[in-house]
Write a structure and sequence with these properties.
- The structure is a homodimer.
- The model of chain A has no long low-confidence stretch (mean pLDDT about 95).
- Chain A contains 13 helices and 18 strands.
- Chain A has a six-stranded mixed sheet, with helices on both faces. In chain A, strands 11-13-9-14 form a four-stranded antiparallel sheet, with helices on one face.
- Chain A has two domains: about 280 residues, Aminopeptidase (3-Layer(aba) Sandwich); about 120 residues, Alpha-Beta Plaits (2-Layer Sandwich).
- By secondary structure, chain A is α+β, with helices and mostly antiparallel strands.
- At the A-B interface, β10, α6, α8, α9 and β11 of A face β10, α6, α8, α9 and β11 of B.
Chain lengths: ~450, ~450
């Protein structure tokens, strides 16, 4: 029987091949939100299926959903050992603004220690690392655990068809726990394990004024400008202390324990680090909380997009007929993602002037989640990180949202371990997204060790 | 010698030909603000030059400016009679949002009493009507006055190269007054003469936050969102009564006399009319003023466009790095269009938070103007309108801005008569721009009579 360190050593010889394949994976523009990329989504799913088959996975197939397909495959030849679902997503975010990319988003380019491409960090990097971790075991004779691969294609659009899918394939997906690779660590030398994720509720707010755009000279002064109204409504959604004003918004927000606050305060990310990662001259946020608390333990309301009137070159003197904002809230347990829509509408009913009409479209929503820090799987993840990075990982609350974690808990009754290797300054969802290559290779090692630690633990069945 | 009414009768036989030629003029996409339309601008200028030459104008030429050319031509065979410059512009506004046009903007289409096309009202309609009015006299033996044609190609971009041009061709443009055709009446049966125009100052306001777009989950709560800041800054530019808060903004705004207010109050446009023209359910504006006063006699600050972050299909969870608003002010005598930029910057210095940086770009600016209601030319215009429409015209303050009027006063020392035939609900600068065809034909008649009335008046030399 091959030892885990032999598998790790074995994998180290393959870094060049890993990088070549990683680039191939990154070059597929699998953008889930844009319908013109549907063929690329299909191609990307088939690419992963081919990888799984090549590695020795069985029953590899693309399972249809109401949207983009799920890639499934299984390796169940470790009798008596735990069974885990390895979750990931192969879809990625759009690339605009395209002109701000230094190298084209689908021509993966290595500069220094980084590889630049859309999806490099979120999450083709983690996805590919776990594939290579599994492959290293399989090339060494077999996996020490049972694995069901489950890569979806709609994470970046809120996993909107996943819940009925998971319900339908409940027995196929039966497992002891989920390894969710869509996660990150703090710094290249500071590993971390996420035990809490914010939820999200994402809306489009449309404000309508006149039936058509008007001339700002001939009508300006006599009618209400919906772009102005939209700005006023958005302004009113926060008070001067950065608190959100939607009625009852904070009612169910979980308050951090003193112990948790103290633990978070030990995390070695200074305000200087935050400033540098964000690329901003000053930090800003809700009064009374540290940056880590603001991002992990407090809800937010952000404007994700604004559009109204004339935005091209030059000076068109239009008084717009309408204005639109994309607005999303990050949620904290036990906030109800459904209730937020009512709170937003209640705010608008109270504050929108009678001169305009408005409409709210709910694009996606998902509740926040907390996972148990003391399951055997969580301890296996902590051990694997410590063995690879040489230091104990920090336990963290993340600001992002991974809808599938709560879904797996609710539908399959299992916890998730969030173990991934993004870094906070990877420019995910932004131009020049990148993956730190030394961290990607360490990710592969960590996954190799994780499967070994898991096989040594007794799992609750 | 042909009488004026014979010329009018003669012109009435040509309506079909007028419409055919008008459609040809409208089909040229002479959008001045978009550089890809430069060849169309040239083609449009040449089209007018060809018309002028065909009618018998002499010295017809395209005079270069630093931007798009001016079309010039003269007919100076009425010795002892007044000389007028006929001003117009052949450039037009962009057409977006294109998908809201019922028929394509450059395929002029007649539906009911209207012709639909970009520029139909602003101002190819008036421009073509005056050409046909001149042509009717020339086909009847000659004009009763001396005319210098002067059609520019940059009115929709603030006539930004016109001032040095007018200065250079001062002697060529020498005249008794200017007939400016870029104007409108109130309703098809309610003629009007504009004696005041608002000025304009048009800016782009850019707010910059982080150096790149961020993930709204991983950073949301810890950095200031520039879209949020932009909304707050815009909100603060008005107080709850609709007054503009820029420092010293109202200092030089002319106060209406009681006589003027009484005269404006007699204008037969009700609030219902305004609502219908604007296509809005409720009117809105600065407290203490009527709609006509709000539009004609009060300055405004309008958001002409908003752009930030992700505005496409779906839900991209981006925390934008920057946000932009197009903001323009309509000005009232004696507001200084240059001072407004300082007032805006002063406001931003006082109100922008230290978490962002901002930048103001001045796209165009021009002061407001008032013209004398009692010049012989103004009286000739009133008489021509009364003879054609059967009722006396109302004297009006218009909300729009026509930079060339103040320029002609300052550079050539002459007044302008604003005589044009747009209607307030023509959708200018918006989708489905239209011209009311019976009004267009009446416009031709009015111009024919106007030249006759002018030739009967003694002009100051």
């Amino acid at each position: 029987m091959t030892s885990v360190e032999q598998v790790v050593d074995f994998s180290k010889r393959d870094h060049d091949r890993y990088l070549t394949e990683f680039k191939e994976y990154l070059s597929i523009p699998s953008i889930s939100t844009l319908s013109e990329h549907k063929p690329d989504i299909q191609r990307c799913a088939e690419w992963i299926a081919k990888q799984l088959t090549g590695m020795g996975f069985k029953n590899v197939e693309l399972l249809p959903t109401a949207g983009h397909p799920v890639v499934y495959g299984e390796w169940l030849n470790a009798p008596g050992k735990p069974t885990l679902v390895v979750y990931g997503h192969y879809d990625i975010q759009p690339v605009d603004p395209l002109n701000e990319w230094v190298s084209p988003p689908f021509q993966p380019t290595v500069r220094g220690e980084y590889i630049y491409a859309r999806g490099a960090s979120d999450m083709k990097g983690q996805g590919h690392a776990v594939l290579k971790g599994l492959e290293a075991w399989l090339r060494s004779g077999g996996l020490p655990v049972n694995v069901k691969m489950f890569f979806e294609g709609e994470e970046e659009i809120g996993s909107r068809n996943l819940e009925p899918f998971v319900e339908k394939y409940k027995s196929k997906l039966k497992c002891d726990f989920v390894l969710n690779c869509d996660s990150s660590i703090l710094k290249p030398d500071v590993p971390a394990l996420v035990y809490g994720l914010r939820g999200i509720a994402y809306f489009e707010l449309h404000v309508y004024g006149a039936k058509a755009d008007l001339h700002s000279g001939l009508f300006g002064g006599a009618v209400h400008n919906p772009a102005q109204v939209l700005c006023e409504l958005i302004t009113g959604m926060h008070d001067p202390n950065g608190h959100i004003t939607l009625p009852n918004f904070y009612d169910k927000v979980r308050v951090l324990s003193n112990e948790e606050r103290a633990e978070l305060a030990r995390v070695p990310i200074s305000d200087d680090d935050w400033r540098e990662m964000a690329g901003t001259k000053l930090l800003y946020g809700e009064k009374g909380f540290t940056s880590l608390e603001r991002v992990g333990a407090r809800p937010t309301l952000e404007v994700n997009g604004l559009l109204s009137g004339f935005t091209g070159e030059g000076s068109k003197t239009v008084l717009p007929a309408k204005a639109m904002a994309k607005i999303s809230m990050r949620l904290i347990p036990e906030q109800d993602d459904g209730a937020v829509e009512d709170q937003l509408k209640e705010y608008l009913r109270k504050n929108a002037p009678p001169t305009v009409t408005w409409e709210v479209k709910n694009l996606t929503s998902d509740p926040a989640v907390l996972v148990d820090r003391n399951t055997p799987a969580m301890r296996a993840a902590a051990s694997a990180l410590q063995a690879t990075f040489g230091v104990k990982p920090f336990f963290l609350l993340s600001g992002g949202s991974v809808p599938v974690v709560s879904m797996m808990k609710n539908r399959l009754g299992v916890d998730s371990v969030l173990l991934g290797f993004g870094l906070p300054d990877d420019n995910i969802h932004a131009p020049n997204e990148k993956q730190h290559l030394p961290t990607y290779y360490r990710g592969i090692e960590t996954y190799i060790r994780f499967f070994d630690f898991v096989s040594q633990k007794s799992m609750p069945h």
